[in-house]
Amino acid sequence: xxxxxxxxxxxxxxxxxxxxxxxxxxxxxxxxxxxxxxxxxxxxxxxxxxxxxxxxxxxxxxxxxxxxxxxxxxxxxxxxxxxxxxxxxxxxxxxxxxxxxxxxxxxxxxxxxxxxxxxxxxxxxxxxxxxxxxxxxxxxxxxxxxxxxxxxxxxxxxxxxxxxxxxxxxxxxxxxxxxxxxxxxxxxxxxxxxxxxxxxxxxxxxxxxxxxxxxxxxxxxxxxxxxxxxxxxxxxxxxxxxxxxxxxxxxxxxxxxxxxxxxxxxxxxxxxxxxxxxxxxxxxxxxxxxxxxxxxxxxxxxxxxxxxxxxxxxxxxxxxxxxxxxxxxxxxxxxxxxxxxxxxxxxxxxxxxxxxxxxxxxx
Length: 363
Known about the structure:
Blueprint: H1 2-32, E1 35-40, E2 43-45, E3 49-58, E4 61-64, E5 70-75, E6 82-83, E7 88-92, H2 95-130, H3 136-168, E8 171-173, E9 178-183, E10 190-191, E11 198-201, E12 206-213, E13 225-230, E14 236-244, E15 254-260, E16 274-280, H4 283-287, E17 292-296, E18 301-303, E19 306-312, E20 318-322, E21 324-329, E22 332-337, E23 344-349, E24 359-361
Parallel strand pairs: 1-24
Antiparallel strand pairs: 1-23, 2-17, 3-12, 3-16, 4-11, 5-7, 5-10, 6-9, 7-8, 9-11, 12-15, 13-14, 13-16, 14-15, 17-22, 18-19, 19-20, 19-23, 21-22
Helix pairs in contact: 2-3
């Protein structure tokens, strides 16, 4: 009987020890589940305006081509090369045009000689007519002959101008200073009129081209300010709304607008970069707009078609709250419903955040 009691006591001691270790492990596990997080509350945005997106384009772009048919004999540049206005870019074979130019030069010389003879004949017959040694009919015939010869001379000279113009099309030069962005042909390939050979863009003049929906186009006026945020670099600056299309017939219901970018802000810009543009409203339109709550884009949780944030409760336990979002304003997005301005939500976390996890706020 005493042995049984001893065994029972030993069993209870072991169970207590195991329970103590398990409790200690649970406490340790619970402590490990506390996730450090950065939190924030929604901001009140009372800016009235239109938020749109688009891309940066060069202020001037040219597709370099030729107006004549011929083999490309040389291309002096490649993509990425900086060029100056008037710089030689490419040449087209022009031996046939040079031969035609020689023929035209000969025709001009012949016509000039004939014109010189006709001019002397006119002078001589004018003197004979004045001395009554030639009739009025003879003088009239000489005048007509002189006029015909001069007309042929003018035609020959204009033909020479045409050949010279065509010959100039075989020497392709840069119409403005910029950078070569694309090369469409190689030496030896056949160039046809209108076929692009090179693409040239300005490097010191950029603009943002955006699409404005029909619901917001009434609040967009030319010559107004526009706040541009470059998605790649995060740079933000103020531009000028230079152009607003009056029609959306060929742009799928979107009205195209252009924002001129100051030259001082073009250092790290490249054509094709994506931008967000905020166009403030003024006057009555601004007064009629109401304030809205915004949160950082990085705090939004997306699951299929649902969007939400992790809200931190008074007990430091987080819960996933589904919310309805509106327009994007740079790196923030408008909250239409589901979140109050007093509530705290998770912006960043140093571990995995999920429903029911306990968090500690870090600054």
